[in-house]
Amino acid sequence: MKNIIKFLFATIAIMMVWSCEKDEDQAVLSLKSEPNLKASTNTLSLTSANANNNAVTFTITPAEYTPAVEVTNVLQFAVTGTNFASVKEAGLSSGVLSKSYTVIEFNALMLNLGLPTGVASSIDVRLKTTVGKGSPVYSQIQKISVTPYALVSYMYAPGAYQGWNPPTAQALKSATSNGIYIGYINFTSPNSEFKITPMKNWDHSYGTNNNVDLIYDGGGNLKAANAGSQKLTVNTNTNKFTLSPYSWAVIGSATPNGWNDPDTDLVWNSTTEKWEVTVVLTVGEIKFRLNNDWGTNFGDDGNNGTLDAGGANIPISLPGTYKITFDEVNLVYTAVKL
């Protein structure tokens, strides 16, 4: 019996020593010093003339832990007042203690944040530090006043609707070069095929294998299932595209079909960024409407060339051939007798 008791005490003692050794192996990680972030400037007025110059440099002092461990550092950018609900991030490689941006790089980042061009906006920048899957710690916030500039860029959509000729293809516009391009194409027949090109040539193009996802320099032709005017949206951030019916037209007693369907469709001019049509009109009235529906329509209450939502019918006092233009951004129109 005594031997059994001695054996039990010995076993317990060994387990206690082993447990102590395990506790020592699993030392608690403690934060020794907070991360720190400094920006080389707090005011930036960006211009295209200085596109390749240095805009700003961020210098970091990483967080330190006891015992010393490898940390992951990420710069976070957000619009001031949003509490970093929507951020853009830039990771820093191990051992890298600074991050510099040229004017064109930082301008693109600001446009992706949604900042308006030509006016000063405030952004918040902070350093996010993590260890493994642990909770992050953050530096103090650096506030920077930034005035971005407009950086318009284009892509093109050559296809069967225009003879597969890139130089004359409809342009897709990204007003802020944020990777989202929008254009309007009048497809002349159902199942019309096309591709997306970054330039007005066939050097590079985007295709698809499923008519949703874009493949750079690969895949088959994109396809518009329906004929008629459609809005084409290309997102090079996600490499996806969408097509949706989108057409402006004139309708009314002065048009060939009167107040009946089909409307007289306008065609998008990507150069003037207006909708246009040349049409024979009789004495009567016209209005503009979207997608052959009265849900969105415009008239002219003052008969002064300025459009009003749901406004009065526009009078046509002389018969003849007219060139009609419609500017949906500035809400103005012209109807000029040729």
From TrEMBL:
Tree of life domain: Bacteria
Domain SusE outer membrane protein: start-end pairs: 22-128
UniProt-listed Pfam families: SusE (PF14292)
InterPro entries: SusE (IPR025970)
Name of the featured protein: SusE domain-containing protein
Classification lineage: Bacteria, Pseudomonadati, Bacteroidota, Flavobacteriia, Flavobacteriales
